[in-house]
Write a structure and sequence with these properties.
The complex is a heterodimer. Chain A has 13 helices and 9 strands. Chain A has 2 domains: 166 residues, Aspartate/ornithine carbamoyltransferase (Rossmann fold, 3-Layer(aba) Sandwich), CATH 3.40.50.1370; 154 residues, Aspartate/ornithine carbamoyltransferase (Rossmann fold, 3-Layer(aba) Sandwich), CATH 3.40.50. By secondary structure, chain A is α/β, with parallel strands linked by helices. Chain A starts with a helix and ends with a helix. The longest helix of chain A is centred in the C-terminal third of the chain and has 21 residues. In chain A, α2 crosses α6, α3 packs across α13 and α6 packs across α7. Helix content of chain A is 40%, strand content 13%. Helix content of chain B is 28%, strand content 22%. Chain B is built from 14 helices and 19 strands. Chain B has 2 domains: 87 residues, Roll (Urease, subunit C, domain 1); 322 residues, Metal-dependent hydrolases (TIM Barrel), CATH 3.20.20.140. The radius of gyration of chain B is 21 Å and the shape is globular. In chain B, the strands form 4 sheets. In chain B, strands 1, 2, 3, 4, 5, 16, 17, 18 and 19 form a 9-stranded mixed sheet that branches. Classes of the chains: A alpha/beta, B alpha/beta.
Chain lengths: 325, 452
């Protein structure tokens, strides 16, 4: 069995250290586990480079995506990842499902388990929902983003993208700009990047930085409100999506002022290292947190992130479902 | 009715500053005699409860609990809630008016009273609304409610947002000497919040409720009490800042009183992380986190707040300990944290939780018992209860401060099994609860024998 799989996928041998049943956040990942995921992702990228981008590894397994919040790229990315591994995929959204009829999340998850799901990938508007599900069912749960809490697969694909370009994440100065308070991507990245030895700098107006975001409860990070100073010498710059709602809710005086103070434009990018990379978790508000020029410029790896996202998710599904225990 | 002698216990009655080993006789529903064994008893026939090693004190008065009836009988009823009270040592409970319909007319007050008389175990004293339907727009007919027998007014669950209306309600309440209990929450600051705003809320990605949301309204109420001379009582104080505001108000003579709950005195925001969370480590999150049974409004705060609350109790800044018993069904709690109901089912764990403060040397028994008996009685102007004076109603609670037990919500008399203490060991247990001379609750290990 094992040898067949190794022909299919050139996954790292140390896959046997994987003991995880769920992927809920990066806070409990060791650096060795992250390395294992990234190494496995390399193997998946090799699969994706083949003419026939499909292996039979997860044939007979069923992956359910339960997305109770609108999402395009994450859901499609998971679906693509599962299909590349020959798993069957069932997509459920909030509308049209029992969730909308008032069924509790636990009952929905139990039903999916009874229907034969081997893994549930879930996106939920409320923080902690994947923990609730994981407590009540036996199948693996992958967090596809929960409220303002965590988005571990985005964190992993960002790590992969950075490692792919710099060779290592350790020592890199990574600047995350914008709405930290409401960003699950920022939270998961803080955990993942810090574990792998990056220096994380957050740059945002005080209304968009949450309280208590400091050691010993979080990894060591630096908050630099002045964006020009924050990007100085940066290796990686990651502006976050600014939801227009933030301005309406009074967290910002105007989009105009936000753009003046926090938009990543060519001038600011020039203050970073010459070959600094621009990442964005998407979807972008071009012209708000990032200029079109920078988003599609030579230093942007935003499209690569999307491709890497499929490979990372294949790696996680493989480790959760396909790896011989 | 035969008389009941409680023999050999440590009798603590803050209303008379009594703390002595002795006997207490209850006859004809009232406290008949207090003395020492060997002395002549005024009665010859009585049953005996041997209370050696136990504390004998006036029955507890809960100034703030939710019996949910009418309207939310799936969460609790007057029958189940008052039995839970008896198990917790409470002989009188003041029930909050956030029922459906709310207690804002004579008819609803009488409904609660009639139900309590027919099905209830302990004394039930209804609290009426401050505004009609708790909508915060017009005052209730306070005269009618006062006549019907409410002991206080509150829109509990909601603050009275409109400061002008709160002013008028306070002024008008003076006609009937009614105390207004306010749930202090600046809803513009707390909107969407589900737990304390701090590192835990940031860690869990939950929206926080800052301390200022409470303190802002505490200060407003103090200012209005000072201006109107009316009586305001601050419900469930949870922050160090509120304690400081109330202290300074009392120092300059403002008529303000305050209560604190057992959970705000003993649990921090970290309880939302669930059981098994080790406070020497900040990560990873355990699977048990997002503990909805620790979701309560106002939210569990920090160790620093707890310290200030305990100091407030000891200094007399906080007058009363009240449970804010808020029973909910499993469905209300077994869901995503954001949509779970606020509240802890607290009647049956109150004493056990609070005794941890006594065992830890932070509070003495006399102070603790006064906050559960004579002090709440003063606030609702019911000076005949909360005391063991001869002639007072025979409301007595007997507890063993050293009896260790494990909290098992399935064994609760309350329908509300929602407590973050499930499975926890508590030291201190109610052994018997007597209301008007009637033994309503008795621990299995406690024996009665015929005396005289």
């Amino acid at each position: 069995m094992r040898t067949t799989k190794q022909r299919e996928i050139a996954a790292p041998l140390e896959a046997s250290i994987w003991r995880r049943r769920h992927v809920l956040d990066l806070d409990d990942f060791t650096s060795e586990e992250i390395e294992l995921v990234l190494g496995t992702t390399d193997a998946m990228r090799e699969v994706l480079s083949r003419e026939i981008k499909k292996v039979p590894t997860l044939r007979g397994k069923t992956v359910v995506t339960l997305f109770c919040e609108p999402s395009t790229r994450t859901r499609v990315s998971f679906e693509q990842a599962a299909k590349n591994l020959s798993a069957d995929v069932i997509n459920l959204g909030a509308s049209g499902s029992s969730v909308e009829k008032g069924e509790s999340l636990i009952d929905t998850a139990r039903t999916l388990q009874s229907l034969g799901a081997d893994a549930i990938v879930m996106r939920h508007c409320y923080a902690g929902a994947p923990y609730l599900v994981a407590r009540h069912i036996d199948v693996g749960v992958i967090n596809g983003g929960d409220g303002c809490h965590a988005h571990p697969t985005q964190g992993l694909l960002d790590l992969y993208t950075i490692r792919d370009h710099l060779g290592t994440v350790a020592g890199a100065k990574v600047v995350i700009i914008g709405d930290i308070t409401h960003s699950r991507v920022a939270r998961s990245n803080i955990w993942g990047l810090s574990k792998m030895g990056a220096k994380v700098v957050l740059s945002a107006p005080p209304t968009l930085v949450p309280v208590g975001l400091s050691a010993p409860y979080f990894p060591e990070i630096v908050v630099e409100q002045n964006l020009d100073r924050a990007v100085d010498g940066a290796d990686i710059i990651m502006p976050l999506r600014l939801q227009q709602e933030r301005q309406k809710r009074g967290l910002l005086p105007s989009l105009r002022e936000y753009i003046q103070l926090y938009q990543l434009d060519a001038k600011r990018l020039a203050k970073a290292k010459p070959n600094a990379l621009v990442l964005h978790p998407g979807p972008m508000n071009e012209g708000v947190e990032i200029t079109r020029e920078v988003a599609h410029g030579a230093q942007s790896v935003i499209e690569e992130q999307v491709t890497n996202g499929v490979a990372v998710r294949m790696a996680l599904l493989y480790l959760l479902l396909g790896c011989v225990q | 009715m035969t008389a009941l002698l409680i023999a050999g216990g440590r009798i603590i009655d803050p209303s008379q500053e009594v703390d002595t080993i002795g006997d207490l006789l209850i006859a004809n529903g009232s406290i008949a005699w207090m003395g020492h064994s060997g002395e002549d008893l005024p009665y010859e026939r009585y049953s005996v409860l041997h209370a050696r090693g136990m504390i004998v004190c006036p029955g507890f008065i809960d100034l703030h609990c939710h019996l949910r009836e009418p309207g939310f009988e799936d969460k609790e009823t007057i029958a189940t809630g008052t039995r839970a009270a008896a198990r917790g040592g409470f002989t009188t409970v003041c029930c909050m008016p956030n029922t459906e319909p709310p207690i804002d007319t004579q008819a609803t007050v009488e409904f609660v009273q009639t139900k309590a008389a027919a099905e209830g175990a302990v004394r039930v004293l209804p609290v009426g609304c401050i505004t009609r339907g708790r909508r915060g727009t017009e005052m209730v007919e306070m005269g009618e409610l006062s006549e019907a027998g409410v002991v206080a007014l509150s829109d509990d669950g909601n603050p009275v947002v409109d400061s002008r209306l709160m002013r008028y309600a306070l002024e008008y309440s003076r006609l009937f000497d009614l105390v207004l209990i306010d749930h202090c929450e600046d809803v513009s600051l707390s909107e969407g919040g589900v737990m304390n705003e701090g590192w835990v809320s940031t860690r869990l990605g939950l929206k926080g409720i800052p301390a200022a949301a409470e303190e802002n309204v505490v200060y407003r109420d103090i200012a209005l009490a000072e201006m109107t001379g009316a009586r305001v009582h601050i419900a469930h104080v949870s922050t160090a800042g509120s304690v400081a505001l109330i202290r300074s108000a009392k120092e300059r003579g403002v008529i303000v009183t305050a209560e604190v709950t057992p959970h705000h005195l003993t649990m921090t925001e970290e309880w939302v992380m669930g059981q098994g969370w080790d406070d020497t480590k900040a990560y990873p999150l355990p699977l048990s986190c997002y503990e909805t049974n620790a979701k309560v409004n106002p939210p569990l705060r920090t160790a620093r707040d707890i310290e200030a609350l305990i100091m407030g109790l000891n200094e007399g800044v906080i007058d009363v300990i009240a449970t804010d018993h808020a029973p909910h069904t499993d469905v209300d709690k077994l869901c995503e944290f954001d949509i779970a109901a606020f509240g802890i089912s607290g009647l049956e764990t109150a004493l056990g939780s609070l005794l941890a403060l006594v065992h830890g040397g932070k509070l003495d028994l006399m102070t603790l018992i006064s906050k559960l008996t004579v002090e709440p009685a003063k606030i609702i102007r019911k000076n005949e209860i909360g005391t063991l004076k001869v002639g007072a109603p025979g409301d007595v609670t007997i507890f063993d401060p050293d009896h260790e037990w494990t909290v098992d919500p399935a064994a609760f008399a309350s329908k509300g099994k929602n407590t973050p203490l499930a499975g926890h060991r508590l030291k201190g247990k109610v052994m018997a609860t007597i209301v008007a001379g009637e033994l309503l609750y008795k621990d299995e290990s406690f024996k009665i024998e015929k005396g005289g």
